[in-house]
Amino acid sequence: MPHKQKKHTNAFKDGSPRAERKNFAPEPSPFAPPVLPLTNYREIHLNEVEALRSIYGDDFEEVEHRRSAWQQSSNVTFKLHLRASSNPEIRIVLLVELPMTYPKTYPNLSLEHLDELRPGTRSRINDIIRRKPEMLLGTEMIYELALSIQDVLEDVAQARALDKDLPSLEEERIEQEAAAVQRAELERQEELRKQEAATAEEQRVLQQLLEDKIRERTNARISRRKSRTYGMDSSGALDVAENSPGAISFDPPLVMSDMEEQPLAFRAVHGKTLLECSPAKETFTVRPVVSENRPHAPLLALKEFSFSEGADVLTFREKMRSIEDKLEVLKKLRHPNIVDFVGFKIHRPLGASDSTNNTWKVYALLEYANKGSLSELLDIIGTVPVEKLRNWMIQLLEALEFYHRSGLVHGDIHCGRVFLFRNVSGGTFVKLQASIEGSLPDHAGNNRSLTSPKSAFWQPPELTREDTPPTTKTDVWDMGIILLQMGFGMDVCSRYTSANALMATRELSPALQDLLHEFFRPNPKKRPTAFQLQPSEFFRVDTPLIAHGSTSNSMSLPSAHALTP
């Protein structure tokens, strides 16, 4: 199989159309216009193909002729398998297509297996394909092109034989630059993708906000329709509200169950009666404003919070917007052992720029506890019977489990947040009030004073570090303190330095001892959840607080009030 052949200068001499035109062209008549000879391109193509076939033998491969729709004859197409004469493995395939007017026009050339060569070699071959046809235009050029490419392949073979086929510094630089360009392009595309994703996310958020606003307006309209459906005379109720001093209106209307468990919608409350007063907070009892045909309006608890804008007005107003979102979440909580949060209102002063009128008010309307709080009960009776303690703790743990399952952390659990209710059958059950104060500015943590013990060991260990927020596990710890206060009195945190001190001093029953160990595990990661505590033995068997045989009993412990002279 021939590889590299010497150039045959007379390869196209015999039988060449050019030679025939030279020998047989008639002499032009001096009296006739010159006649241009017709070029037989087809014959030129076939002659060149036959010459190349004879030179390259098996390395010449004819390709199926391709004919366009308007062509009368197809273009000549073939492949030349070009190899280095000293190393046939170094090869390349030259695909040639001769147009109808070749050699007066450039041939269509393409290369195969070019990627198997080094960048420098590829550059030299591409330079031949690009520049050489310009120099040879008008003559048969395929053999010249093939010969030049074989010279390059032979150089590669010689260098490889001498172990010199290593990348030069220039080639390495070219490769590094190409890689850098590719990396930059990938990074640019990635940055563009991130920008497009960010833009899409921004559009999605804006669309979601728009949909939320539309949904709120739709819900408000539905609520107003329900108000009319429930038999509320809106105009009459509003007239009553306007004639009631101190009435507070809500928009949209609020809906709750009345004393007969029937739905009741109202727009305002009135008849404020002060229950409790503290700095920046007042608690009242109120009743919904209803028309005369709804005389059985239940009693509600209204908490009124006052806030001053202060110097940083923008920051304060941003906090107030955040408060509204938090209260909306708490308003949706519905559980048999969580106090119903009926609704709220944020009142902004009309003349906020006036220094005499820059006080904002937040009104929170809640279900009224007809039997008071657990804190008030313990102040009166000291402790509760173990059977009632067991039932109430299960109810509180179920409420706390629901609270946590809703994605919320209470952060302010104490006996003042537990309220007692009497049902229609005469039984008493407890409800946990949501941490409304904890959602307000300048109130988070203020109410922990009700359970703030004399000793720091009563605090969850993880909260001793500064700026550590409450967690679901600190809620569990605080619930354990409520259990001890129900069993041993409100002053248990004053009489004992820690839960461990109480367990070491008193002869507690094994079931209670095990339960307290779980409530007060120092490591919050090992402290169980409210759900995990419910199957505890203490809640499932009839076991006392104090082990049998002990001379003391929890019910005989003196309370803080009993010790007061």
UniProtKB/TrEMBL annotation:
Stretches of Basic and acidic residues bias are at 15-24
Q: Name one GO molecular function term.
A: MAP kinase activity
Q: Is the keyword ATP-binding in the record? A: yes
Name the chemical reaction catalysed here. L-threonyl-[protein] + ATP = O-phospho-L-threonyl-[protein] + ADP + H(+); L-seryl-[protein] + ATP = O-phospho-L-seryl-[protein] + ADP + H(+)
GO BP annotation list = cellular response to stress; positive regulation of metabolic process; regulation of gene expression; regulation of protein metabolic process
According to the UniProt entry, the coiled-coil residues are 169-212
Q: Where is the composition biased (Basic residues)?
A: 1-10
Determine if ATP-binding is one of this entry's keywords.
yes
EC code: 2.7.11.24
The record's section on CDD domains has: PK_eIF2AK_GCN2_rpt1, RWD_GCN2
Q: Which UniProt keywords apply?
A: ATP-binding, Coiled coil, Kinase, Nucleotide-binding, Transferase
Q: Where is this region: Disordered?
A: 1-32, 225-244
Superkingdom of the organism of origin: Eukaryota
Residues forming the RWD domain are 47-156
Q: Where is the Protein kinase domain?
A: 224-539
Instruction: Indicate what this protein is called per its UniProt record.
Output: mitogen-activated protein kinase
Origin species, per record, is Aspergillus sclerotialis
